[in-house]
């Protein structure tokens, strides 16, 4: 039997990648698509809207995404389903989360500096610059 040493992982500098074969590894976090087949758990300290790319829409076509607010506060905006529609907004406070359906475009804006966690399969992730900025 092989014994792997156990050590702590700084979740603000590494992401956890959960692979289909059951392996869990600390690795760099990715905002863009990955073909590894791994789910990513990534934690972020954010202070401004620029830190959460509020000027972009993001979408995960392969899986749902859990967006968790650990500290602070954030507003998660879902893009309107059609022309002339309005954005759906979910306000998260510390200790709350939302599950974004696969294929749903979303963006975030901060209410306060925050610690956020994202859990998703990054394969096929898309970012799109907002054209409706104020």
Write a brief caption for the model.
With 134 residues, the chain is mainly beta. It has no helices and nine strands. β1 and β2 form a beta hairpin.
Could you please describe the fold and organization of this structure?
The protein has 134 residues and is mainly β. The protein contains no helices and nine strands. The chain has strands spanning 15-18, 24-27, 39-46, 56-59, 65-78, 88-93, 96-100, 106-121, 126-129. The strands form two sheets. Strands 1, 2, 3, 5, 6, 7 and 8 form a seven-stranded antiparallel sheet that branches. A two-stranded antiparallel sheet has the order 4-9. A hairpin with a 5-residue loop joins strand 1 and strand 2. It is globular. The relative contact order is 0.28. The model has no long low-confidence stretch (mean pLDDT 90).
Structure summary, number of beta strands = 9
Q: SSE order, as H and E?
A: EEEEEEEEE
Indicate the multimeric state. single chain
How many H/I helices?
0
Structural class determined from secondary elements: mainly beta
What is the average of the pLDDT values?
A: 90
The level of helicity is under 10%
Shape: globular
Strand portion, in percent? over 45%
Please tell me how large the radius of gyration is.
16 Å
Please summarize the sheet with the most strands: 7 strands, antiparallel
Question: Which consecutive residue ranges, at least 5 long each, have pLDDT under 50?
Answer: none
Give the termini separation. Answer: 60 Å
